Amino acid sequence: MTTSAPTATTLPATPTHGADRPLRADAERNRRRILDAAREVFARRGLEAGLDEIARHAGVGTGTVYRRFPDKARLVEALFEERLALVLGTISDAADEPDAWQGFVGAIEALTRMQIEDRGLKDVFFSHFGDAEAFREHHDRLVPLLESLVSRAKAAGELRPDVELTDLAVVQLTLCQVGRFAEDVEPDLWRRHLGIVLDGLRVARSAPSPLGAPPMDAAAFDAACGRERGGS
Amino acid sequence: MTTSAPTATTLPATPTHGADRPLRADAERNRRRILDAAREVFARRGLEAGLDEIARHAGVGTGTVYRRFPDKARLVEALFEERLALVLGTISDAADEPDAWQGFVGAIEALTRMQIEDRGLKDVFFSHFGDAEAFREHHDRLVPLLESLVSRAKAAGELRPDVELTDLAVVQLTLCQVGRFAEDVEPDLWRRHLGIVLDGLRVARSAPSPLGAPPMDAAAFDAACGRERGGS
DNA sequence: CTCTAAGTGGAATGAGTTTCTCCGCTTAGA
DNA sequence: TCTAAGCGGAGAAACTCATTCCACTTAGAG
After folding, report:
1. B19-78 tens-digit pLDDT
2. Cα–Cα distance between B45 and A60 in angstroms, integer?
3. Are A138 and A144 in contact (CB under 8 A)?
4. Which protein residues have their Cβ less than 7 angstroms from some atom of strand C?
5. Which pLDDT tens digit goes with each residue over B125-145?
6. Structural domains in chain B?
7. pTM for the whole thing?
8. How far apart are CA A207 and CA A197, in angstroms?
């Protein structure tokens, strides 16, 4: 089943899907369509979205998806390997920012924004899907980059010394939840809470920083909870 | 199907389940068992738990649950009406605390702890289940109490003036997520993040407050993501 | 143009969920 | 003693998903 060793004993020289594979033109076209559809659907609904929905969105049958990608996990890997490279670049930019605190804030802000815009990306970071061997390399490059942002901000006397990288991961997870909670009602709400948390992460400050977005009112809150419009 | 009108044309005067109802002793016993089981199961797994699981846990058949409570929503209402009264009492105590900031912190801490210990409670607050008419009265008593805690803490010059009640609801929602994320690995992690956020909610401070729990290490983080134990 | 292996769509399968109903049997308690 | 209330739990009815199967179509080499 999972043997990827070439069963070349019968077929002499037709590498139809060995290491390289010259896909038929229409097949290659469909492969791209599937990846594009997966990007959109996973971004909107997260990795829990079904492959049926992706197939429908791509305009192909579900069988075609499975012909191209052996299972859902493999499709996720194919899709997010490119995506993670982009993330890496963005964080790399933040690490180049001359001001330590600015760089730190920029990294958190960018990571969070990307994960709110692409719920699949958030799932790669925070669910078992991120376990895939395919993501190992990106992960191993991303972590030291973030570590350096953290230690630089601490050394500059801006970031409180008692927080660690995992704390920042958790902060991001929570900001993603704020984004999701309010997405239909106050899409920028997460920036407000980023502002609060950042003030909590600084060593000291004399006054609160301005928050980046307006709060929800009571009606918006009820709507975000999925409730009917309350009476009074 | 849904007609609850008494089909009393045949039975003249037996108010078996009219307005009042003298349940048979064994039936009353089972009713309590079901509520107790529901409390435990909903606390552990949230309101998404199935009634089958509750019935099994109560040692009764699913039919018995449905005989006592017409549907899941009604069971939830019966259960959490008592529970909300308890919450109200706790917040009331916090409002009586002489120090404004202490009272405010105590209220957030207590609300969050209760919701982390009882995931069903969190769902009542933050999902469509909370919509039930049965919760209206408790809701209408809780909100002004929280409002007063907020305005008092602002007036004391401790709480930043640009946050509103909905912001605190969102803060709590996120703390619940931290609790859930780390529950198997670092059950007190949410206190750490409560500490960070509280520092962000204060008007000013000269140094970070000590955090109430240790951070996760990398292995704990992976475990919390539901991942296999990574190699290096 | 012909022919065939690659490619295709989407129904079907199977394994999960869940809520809620039905009905033959048991038992409390008047 | 007797009967209506109560009981358990199988199972109906709707869903959700991932994955497979196969009769049909078509690209593209010769």
Report:
1. 466 889 999 999 999 999 999 999 999 999 999 999 999 999 999 999 999 999 999 999
2. 38
3. no
4. A 14, 16-17, 23-24, 26-27, 29-30, 59-64, 66-68; B 1, 24-26, 48-52, 62-63, 66, 71-72
5. 999 999 999 999 999 999 999
6. 24-70 (1.10.10.60), 80-229 (1.10.357)
7. 0.90
8. 14
